[in-house]
Specification:
alpha/beta; seven-stranded parallel beta sheet; 7 strands; 38% helix; SDR_fam; oxidoreductase activity
Amino acid sequence: MRFRDREVVVTGAGRGIGQAIVERFLAEGARVAAIDLEPPAGRVDSRHLSWHAFDITDEGAVATFFAGRNRCDVLVNNAGIPGEGALAALTTEYWNRVFAVNVTAQMLMAQAAMPLMPAGSSIVNLSSVAAHLGFAERAAYCASKAAVLGLTRALAIELAGTVRVNCLCPGTVDTPWIARLVGEGDDRDERLAAMAGRQPMDRLGMPSEIAAAVAFLASHDASFITGAVIMADGGMAIGAR
């Protein structure tokens, strides 16, 4: 019970990795405030869990949320959107929206949480293996996730000695987004295997594995770690087999 009676805030909590993160912190004794645009229909039922539906790119909504809280021991900035499309076809509006969700919202959440975070607190920002590798038709996504690395490092320096700030970069994980990318059809299994095969471990990551890494970074077990960028990518960033 590493997080007994700790106050944890998780964005993008409604599905996939975010849902697994919520479940992990609840299992370790935390009181969790889960944020998403729409709480999922099949959400976890726990007296230690509260759901909050608002747009984290809305500065006023973020401020209102934290104004109703007394403390924040852990902030997990998990929310993000894919940012798909060839660069030649991207509009400025779409580019800005990807950065608003993937980067600016992390800044807004951290900025509002900081006054409520006692010494020993932790922020974990979710980036992606795409911050380290280039992917065709993912320019907005790759660029925004790379920006999260810079935000994490700068904030870690700014808050050193009080709040630890680290970044986790997942690889390809078995989530609803990946299921949508793979799609349906007779060759679905082959396409899924090809996607998994990009990672030297030759499988997709599981949301629970990402949640375990987040919990480690947020815990006292990582008390001398700040400003770190941790890969949870099945070896994808080091190259193909």
